[in-house]
Amino acid sequence: MNNLILPPATIGIIGGGQLGQMLALAAKPLGYRVIVLDPTPNAPAGQVADEQIIASYDDAAALRVLAQRVDVLTYEFENVDLMTLKDLGNLTPLPQGTELLAITKNRLAEKSFIKNLGLPVTNFAEVKNVIDLDAAVQQVGLPAILKTVEGGYDGHGQWDIPDRDALAELVAHWDDSIEDTLILEHRIAFDFEISVMVTTDGNDDIRIWPMTQNEHHSHILRTSIAQTNPNQKQLQKVQDIAKTIATAFSLKGVLGIEMFVQGNDIYINELAPRPHNSGHLTIEGTNISQFEGHIRSIVGLPIPEIQLQAPAMMLNLLGDKLTRARNDLVTHPEWHFHDYSKAEIKPLRKMGHITVVGDTDIQALKEWEMENHGD
């Protein structure tokens, strides 16, 4: 075992949202203590951890206190200051390191990294200002999506450019406050989206979770489904991609890989250096969840081969759909219901999720989703 950290050691998590909550819930049965840092009092992860440090993510002094009080450190989201994180790695083990975060924080660096590995990505170009935009469109082709290089999530920080008219409209109303470098990506007509989670364990064995097919609405993930009989050619391509990226990063912790499927081709869309929304169904659907896998990876424990027990589906509960699901719990004993216990329900905000296992329950959940489609 390399860099083995056994319980009752303390794990520090930067970020107290639902991913931190589920990481803490995976760590506790293994016997670890958990301290989270998040600026929101009684944050979702803080409710289930041993302790929460209430401080902003740019509070270097508070982050140092966290690092000094834990035996290993991890993070649940990308927007962590790299220099601060590197300094914290001098105080306590940070198995994920900073290279993974540095590359995945920057869409241009991420796309270039993937392309340099010889893996498939859509055409892309750097856009430093509005003057560069037309040349970038010539290079990338339309339709395309213009994105901020850093930050942005669930569709924020993105501009759709389906045709020349939309391009002219965007240029005419260009926001002069946009000073950062942007990336223009060709928008392919894909058949559907898939994703996969991957990690390496304490023996450096690569472990890959089942491929999920994902459906988005308004750029926000709504459903993920994992099948026990996936397309074997697709699966082989996806596993090869996951192994190549995991090896290139000397990966520790879970990495999410989002991809587009177009006919027989697969294009990598985005990497997430942490557990991913589309992997939530692994809590009930596989023998080891992505969250337990992440914990096992960063503390150096082994992870068995990942097995999908049966077809599984995850449905995100956005906004007030959480309230409707709470009210319907009495008639759905088959639901694995996850309420993130956020303080305020907001439209299109991820408030919880439901997972079901087995074809019959998947069909029933799809029907419930159709009946309760609005937020």
Principal-axis shape equals globular
Helix-strand sequence: EHEEHEHHHEHEEHEEEEEHEEHHEHEEH
Q: Unreliable segments (pLDDT under 50, ≥5 consecutive)?
A: none
Number-wise, the strands total: 17
Radius of gyration computed on alpha carbons? 21 Å
The biggest sheet, with number of strands, parallel, antiparallel or mixed sense and barrel status, is: 9 strands, antiparallel
- Could you estimate the helical fraction of the residues in percent? 25-40%
Number of helices in the DSSP assignment: 12
| Alpha-beta content class | alpha+beta
Distance between the termini: 47 Å
Global mean pLDDT: 94
- Portion in beta strands: 25-35%
Give short descriptive properties of this protein:
4-stranded parallel sheet, 9-stranded antiparallel sheet, 26% strand, globular, alpha+beta, single chain, 12 helices, 17 strands, 375 residues
A few lines on this structure:
The chain has 375 residues and is an alpha+beta fold.
Task: Give an account of the 3D structure.
The protein is an alpha+beta fold. It is 31% helix and 26% strand. The chain contains twelve helices and 17 strands. The protein has helices spanning 18-27, 60-69, 82-88, 99-104, 107-116, 130-140, 164-172, 232-249, 282-285, 290-299, 321-328, 359-371, and strands at residues 10-14, 33-38, 51-54, 72-75, 124-127, 144-148, 158-161, 182-186, 192-200, 206-208, 212-217, 220-226, 255-262, 265-272, 312-318, 336-339, 350-357. Strands 9, 10, 11, 12, 13, 14, 15, 16 and 17 form a nine-stranded antiparallel beta sheet that branches. It has a four-stranded parallel beta sheet with strand order 3-2-1-4, with helices on both faces. The chain has a four-stranded antiparallel beta sheet with strand order 5-8-6-7, with helices on both faces. It is globular, with a radius of gyration of 21 Å. The termini are far apart. The model has no long low-confidence stretch (mean pLDDT 94).
